Amino acid sequence: MRRALVYTPQARDDLDGIFDFIAVTNPRRARTYIDEIRAACSTLCDTPMIGTERPDLRAGLRVLPLWRRIVIAYELPPDRVDILRIFARGRNYDAILGG
Predict the structure, then answer these.
(1) What is the CATH number of the domain that holds 52?
(2) Residue-number span of the structural domain to which 21 is assigned
(3) What is the distance, to the nearest Å, from the Cα of residue 90 to the centroid of all Cα atoms in its chain?
(4) 18-50 pLDDT tens trace
(5) Which 8-state DSSP code applies to residue 55?
(6) If you write DSSP's letter for every residue of 56-93 in order, what string do you get?
(7) How far apart are CA 56 and CA 61, in angstroms?
(8) Taking a C-beta distance cutoff of 8 angstroms, is the pair 2, 74 a contact?
(9) Which long-range contacts (CB under 8 A, 24 or more apart) does 30-37 make?
(10) How far apart are CA 77 and CA 79, in angstroms?
């Protein structure tokens, strides 16, 4: 059975922030970029273990880097993938999630 995909409010805010940053110079690319991130998140429903475990930051935390620019932080409760945060390049996700 495919897992359900759930975005936390913080993850939605992260996507909005990424969109807004790109849209200043290229609104069309901003939309496709967000679509690509969402597609990667959706892939986690079928292959949830592809991310790296990060128990040093938080129990149950996994991260999936994309394109050396994005890091998706997620957890795997039963039957779901919870997208906790989506960090853009330059954000210190270790400090944010570990602190």
Answers:
(1) 3.30.2310.20
(2) 4-98
(3) 15
(4) 999 999 999 999 999 999 999 999 999 999 999
(5) T
(6) TTSTT-EEEEETTTEEEEEE--TTEEEEEEEEETT--H
(7) 9
(8) no
(9) 37/66, 37/70, 37/72, 37/86
(10) 6
In the predicted structure, residue 99 carries a pLDDT above the cut 70: no
* Burial class of residue 99, CB neighbours in 10 A (0-12, 13-18, 19+): exposed
| Higher-scoring residue by pLDDT: 81, 99 | 81
Q: Which two tokens mark 53?
A: 């475990």
Number of structural domains found in the chain: 1
- Which residue type does 84 have? L
pTM for this entry: 0.90
